[in-house]
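Reminder: ligand-aware prediction takes two inputs, not one.
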Amino acid sequence: MKELYLIQTPYIFMGIQGDPTQTPFSILGVPFASTNSFRGGSRFAPLAVRIASQSLEAYSFRAGVDLESNPPYDEGDVAVTHGSAETTLRNLAAVTEELVKARRVPAVIGGDHTITYGVIEGLVRAGIKPCLLIFDAHLDFRHEYLGYKWSHACVTRRISELIGAQNILVVGVRAVSSRELRDAKSLELNYIPMITILRSTLRSVSSRISKSLERCPYIYVSVDMDALDPAYAPGVATPEPEEMTPTQLLNLLHASTDERVVGFDVVEVDPQTDNSHITSFLAARIMMEIMSYLIASRR
Ligand SMILES: [Mn+2]
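Here is what comes back for the chain with manganese (II) ion:
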């Protein structure tokens, strides 16, 4: 069934195809960017991140894991319909549901942020209702944006309708409308503003994250690359100064990902505005680090 919706790609993640009987990870590209409201090149991100991943070393010092000895299995790209979020999300949810039922851990390369909804829907249909940990400069909590409810600016709101706003935590927030903030408060969405992170220690922020996810049997992690300062991630659809740094992000990911993580995505890379492929290299590194942390936590 899932084969119907998957397209093989000329490049595979890390350049080595993993053995699906050995690795839990299924790399899934979703080259869909139709809901981006500013720069629209994230449909090319799965290709750019795969190419960047081929030149990176695979050893994680934080995890003590060498991904090269057990690389992820690259499933290819999900068939998307440019211009139709509904069709794309339906295909993505079908693929995710089947992978999750086969006990795979989806490692997804977006695409615009809307694609996270399709992965969560697939998880829910497979009987797994996760809490969602998002790293993002934006709350993405608008009911609709420019008259469109599937906009990437609404993805947290749409997912909250599936799993409940109180089961979502957004970290690194610095770009909101006051209406979004009001809605977030009244619907009990959890969020940690970037300014709070800058004024706290890493330890206190990671313990706040752990506490917020304490009661969750499953966790899904979504990394919007615009969570990072545009100095480190210039090639994103909607850049927002200031902070976080790659080191802050990886430290927080390392402290807060454990064996409850059932999948993750890295979204919103725009290769068309990515000077020297900086953002694609960082996105590939983040994916490799998250997989290494999960392998270490399952040992
Ligand atoms: Mn964002």
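The radius of gyration is 17 Å. DSSP finds nine helices and eleven strands in the chain. We will return to this case in the review session.
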